[in-house]
Specification:
CATH topology of the largest domain: Dihydrodipicolinate Reductase, domain 2
Strand content: 15-25%
Structural class: alpha/beta
CATH architecture of the largest domain: 2-Layer Sandwich
Distance between the termini: 17 Å
Bound molecules: NADPH dihydro-nicotinamide-adenine-dinucleotide phosphate, the ligand O=C1O[C@H](COP(=O)(O)O)[C@@H](O)[C@H](O)[C@H]1O
CATH class of the largest domain: Alpha Beta
Largest sheet: 9 strands, mixed
Radius of gyration: 24 Å
Low-confidence stretches: none
CATH superfamily of the largest domain: Dihydrodipicolinate Reductase, domain 2
Length: about 525
Amino acid sequence: MSTVVQATPTRSIAIPPMPKAEPCTIVIFGASGDLTKRKLIPALYDLACIGCISGQQFDVLGTGRTEMTTDEFRKAMRDAASTSKDARKFSDWNWEEFEKRLHYFPGDINNDGFYHALKDQLSEIEKNGGSSNHLFYVSTQASLAPPIVQGLGKCGLSKNEKGWTRIVLEKPFGRDLESAKALNREVLQVFDEKDVYRIDHYLGKETVQNILVFRFGNSLFEPIWNRNYINSVEITAAETLGVEQRAAFYEETGALRDMVANHLLQLVTLTAMEPPVAFDADSVREQKVQVLRAIHHMTPEQVCERTVRGQYGPGKINGKDVPGYREEPGVKPDSRTETYVAVEFRIDNWRWAGVPFYVRSGKRLAKSETEIKIHFKRTPQALFAKTSDDDIEANVITLRVQPNEGITMSFAAKQPGAQMKAVPVKMDFSYQTAFGGQAPVAYETLLLDAMRGDPTLFTRGDEAENQWRIITPIEDAWLQLPVPKFPNYAAGSDGPEEANTLIAEECKKWSPIG
Ligand SMILES: NC(=O)C1=CN([C@@H]2O[C@H](COP(=O)(O)OP(=O)(O)OC[C@H]3O[C@@H](n4cnc5c(N)ncnc54)[C@H](OP(=O)(O)O)[C@@H]3O)[C@@H](O)[C@H]2O)C=CC1
Ligand SMILES: O=C1O[C@H](COP(=O)(O)O)[C@@H](O)[C@H](O)[C@H]1O
């Protein structure tokens, strides 16, 4: 049984308006790809609708190998924005104004001549009244970031005497520790660190930022936020989406690099970090890096014990048949790429010694949901008659990142009646109920920050390298181990059965998805 009590703000609070972007032209490398249509263009369109981007001196120049005219690009982006689940209310009138600022120019990133042609395109936009500030957005698979950075450097586009130039680099930043170090070196040969924005869009999510407010804006939780009271932490990022049209990207990436090496490690660090001395970019990043440094690097034996990989087979999502990963367009029929991963991290520091952080992420799971569950220790004794040890559940705080953003606390309460029987109840805070309105989605926040020159919510170079120090030993050990028998979970399920063996000792099994 479970009763829900609502938590609302103690006074009414409206969501304040967002600031205005600086004028600029955004060049998107990878504009024919999934991220551009699903997240970037809907976010930019929304920013235009709410007046953060003014029509004048704002342009987007998209590029990719796919041959398309600007009109075809505009049409494809319109289709995407009008059906985007992230976008605010779509209106044809607003779109007609917005699409005038979209341009497309096909080309191959590996071709030196492409960058000179790109420079000409930018000059043309400027001649027509566009801004001389340039924001380069690298939205391709990681292996293409170095040629882009070099190409921009060689043709002089990384320096700009007439305005500012910034570069946004999508995650994953490199594919292992060595390539991340090399990419950091290459980027810094061409750009100043202050102009480099390594993006991890989880940091732009309101509920992810709220982890810090929840922990450090309340005196209630911090005293118990440690190994003395917490038994384990369970972090889930589950998606119903499959690989979509992204096989080229996903085959070289896999779930560990795609989600765990960045988004989920961000959730781990924000949950585990010490209080920063101030809420500024460097103080927060400093504490996050300390957590990354304390996460235990696994030996190959520990990789066997503490990780599980999976790949989805055919199944049903929302009642519809979907193919297995190996049957998806562009995927090799014997692909070894993992679409699911579960890992047990250990943080070797004073606060967290002995507390496992169980982390899992997968595609084509039963439901799309991202959440952090803090499992507290059980009471030492079952005091109440009619209530067995097993019936008294340990307290759990659930931080719901998406959907239905909010926080739930479970605790025991007396069941009404003559008997002294304890039952679990829940206290629930929901963003939507409490604040109403529509909070900005992550890419709106982060694109706006990049256009305004605010790096607070972006990843520092050493942070990215420290993430790979944890992930690379896992990737290396997997390469040496026999490939698991893939596929090992059905689309629409909770993931491979083996994942439960990882968590069995502390939690019995993973919380059900959905
Ligand atoms: N999709 C998502 O939901 C999210 C993605 N990301 C990140 O965004 C980035 C892009 O991902 P996504 O859009 O999904 O990947 P896609 O595979 O969908 O897109 C890759 C893009 O790169 C372009 N490309 C590949 N090779 C070349 C080349 N030689 N020259 C020019 N362009 C090339 C492709 O263009 P073409 O096919 O025309 O050659 C395409 O536009 C990744 O770093 C990913 O981690 C981050 C958050 C969410
Ligand atoms: O970075 C990525 O994130 C998305 C999931 O983002 P979300 O905001 O919808 O949780 C994931 O689908 C994609 O594979 C990955 O590249």
